[in-house]
Specification:
The complex is a heterodimer of chains A (109) and B (114). By secondary structure, chain A is mainly β. Chain A has no helices and 11 strands. In chain A, the strands form 2 sheets. In chain A, strands 2, 4, 5, 9, 10 and 11 form a 6-stranded mixed beta sheet that branches. The radius of gyration of chain A is 13 Å and the shape is globular. The mean pLDDT of chain A is 94. Chain B is built from no helices and 11 strands. In chain B, strands 2, 4, 5, 6, 9, 10 and 11 form a 7-stranded mixed beta sheet that branches. In chain B, strands 1-3-8-7 form a 4-stranded antiparallel beta sheet, with no helix packed on it. In chain B, a hairpin with a 5-residue loop joins strand 7 and strand 8. The mean pLDDT of chain B is 93. Classes of the chains: A mainly beta (109), B mainly beta (114). Chains A and B meet through strand 4, strand 5, strand 9 and strand 10 of A and strand 4, strand 5, strand 9 and strand 10 of B.
């Protein structure tokens, strides 16, 4: 099956700082989603981005499908951005989402 | 528009017992997928249901089974519970079963097996 690697595994930021999270995947994909998992466990949809660039407020994402990676940018981080960020993909042969191990982001006031 | 809902939120069971978890899909969505998330890991795909039939299965034993109802809601059943079944169980719904549809997740059910 498709492999998904996220980096870095952990990120500690001062409030107001910018950061970049990376997701590498091992095969062509139909779907790539970024999620933020809140402290209660719910996965919040951030972006559906199999290719191209999208922005939503302080967050933006870019997927370069030909090079099999995606980047999530957090600008002017806030304490509410803390949590685990997951990248998930599905490939051309499967319906399931395969998740990376996540990046744990801690934003300090 | 109603989001994905799951019940119960928390559950404690004893090893060897059986458990049923429930999921209501987002309005207009006909496909439901179930995932298991162990502590400190990413979610793992269990299976997907479409038109009341299983439409793909991950690497989980047969004691994990499911149902989908005509209103697209779904149940996950786990028999003969083991300690390793302790996890967060997430349900996701989507507009269709083909690859490429965005999936939306419910709040999860946290299962503890003692």
């Amino acid at each position: 099956g498709i492999q998904v690697e996220q980096s870095p595994p952990d990120l500690i930021l001062q409030e107001g700082a910018n950061s970049t999270l990376r997701c590498n995947f091992s095969d062509s994909v139909n779907n790539l989603q970024w999620f933020h998992q809140n402290p209660w466990g719910q996965l919040i949809n951030l972006f559906y981005i199999p290719s191209g660039t999208k922005q939503n407020g302080r967050l933006s994402a870019t997927t370069v499908a030909t090079e099999r990676y995606s980047l999530l940018y957090i600008s002017s981080s806030q304490t509410t951005d803390s949590g685990v960020y997951f990248c998930a993909v599905d490939d051309y042969n499967d319906y399931k989402l395969s998740f990376g191990a996540g990046t744990t982001v801690t934003v300090r006031a | 528009e109603t989001g994905v809902t799951q019940s119960p939120t928390h559950l404690i069971k004893t090893r060897g017992q059986q458990v049923t978890l429930r999921c209501s899909s987002q309005s207009g969505h006909n496909t439901v997928s179930w995932y298991q998330q162990a502590l400190g890991q990413g979610p793992q795909f269990i299976f997907q249901y479409y038109r009341e039939e299983e439409n793909g299965r991950g690497n989980f034993p047969p004691r994990f089974s499911g149902l989908q109802f005509p209103n697209y809601s779904s149940e996950l059943n786990v028999n003969a519970l083991e300690l390793d079944d302790s996890a967060l169980y997430l349900c996701a719904s989507s507009l269709g079963t083909s690859v490429g549809y965005e999936q939306y997740f419910g709040p999860g059910t946290r299962l503890t097996v003692t």
